[in-house]
Write a structure and sequence with these properties.
CATH superfamily of one domain: RNA 3'-terminal phosphate cyclase domain
Oligomer: single chain
Largest sheet: 5 strands, mixed
Helix content: 25-40%
Shape: globular
Number of strands: 18
Distance between the termini: 74 Å
Strand order of the largest sheet: 5-6-8-7-13
Radius of gyration: 27 Å
Structural class: alpha/beta
Length: about 400
Amino acid sequence: MHRKCVRLFRLTRHTEVESAASFRRFRSRLSVKQLKLGVRQKMESEVMEIDGSVMEGGGQILRVSAALSCITGTSVKITKIRAGRSTPGLRPQHLSGLQLVSDLCSGSLQGAEIGSTEISLTPGKIHCGNHTADPQTAGSVCLLLQASLPCAVFADGPSQLVLKGGTNAEMAPQIDYTVKVFKPTMEKFGVHFDCDVRLRAYYPKGGGEVMVTVNPVKELQPVLMTERGKLTKCYGRAFVAGVLPYKLAKDMSSAAVRTIRREIKDLYINIPALQEKENATGNANGIIIIAESSTGCVFAGSALGRKGVYAEQIGAEAAEMLLRNVRHNGCVDEFLQDQVIIFMALAKGTSRIRTGPVTQHTQTAIHIAEKLTQAKFTITKCDDELSNDDTFLIECEGSGAANAHM
């Protein structure tokens, strides 16, 4: 009887232990399921929705949103992409830029196809290395760089970006602008990159190639660009490529110089006429004119040849664009203005930039930057003796984004 009692006690005890162990395993499995569910719900709740039709309503919303998603780690869902354009949705250039950003951050990209009006990007870790973007069109390589450069700056090492398409395209900065105006301004933020133009290409054929080498930084420096100073020199290039006659380049250059001289008498000007025979593909003509100031500010005006438009008119258009951008006595032109917004938003500290009229592109970039970062922008009208009705100050308390790899 005693042995039976002992055996019964041990059996009962063993059953209790097994039951307790089973309960713990069940509770553990439940906790894991709850944890996974909680993470998934959190990720879904943290997806930032961006209306792609607001304000400028074009490709810039995609570029700024994707870059900031990559850097901040915030998942984004962009809807109504390019809703106001004649061909809404993603075009090859936009798709290629999104894929490049996703590749840089090992992200997950949904809805990425030509014509899509809605995409989602879930970013991962930004990594260095070699990355290529090729829209297989004459889409601007400079716009591809606008989307990818901020991401590469926060990578875990140097990156090489091979960007293919058009180097000198309409409705986008020319590659010469990126090298001569955008690049030195980026260096003020602490961003350093090299740009090797391997092959120039033009609309409609495309096929150009630029290799950009980007060095990462720990954090971006704020910039103060509030003193324009005096214009010290003006230079540039007027070019023809392919079968177009060299005379077109000379006519563009001469017309540009005459236009500038009518307003600024004593400025050094050097705009050589060039025939692009090597390292270029396609037929095109165009001009870019750059002005530098005594305080290191850089401005530009540019134009590309169009069917039925005289070369002299192209040269005059570029010169008038340059003059328009120096009359307000600001420190950046209308095209650099919106490109610096994302870097102001990410910098650690307060940036101030004096400029001309605030463009819709700039307002759009500010809208997206404030939505995806903790940056705060203010725009005030300048009222000093050097300003006019078109002079403004853009100020930003940056979010102080830090490179976790450095």
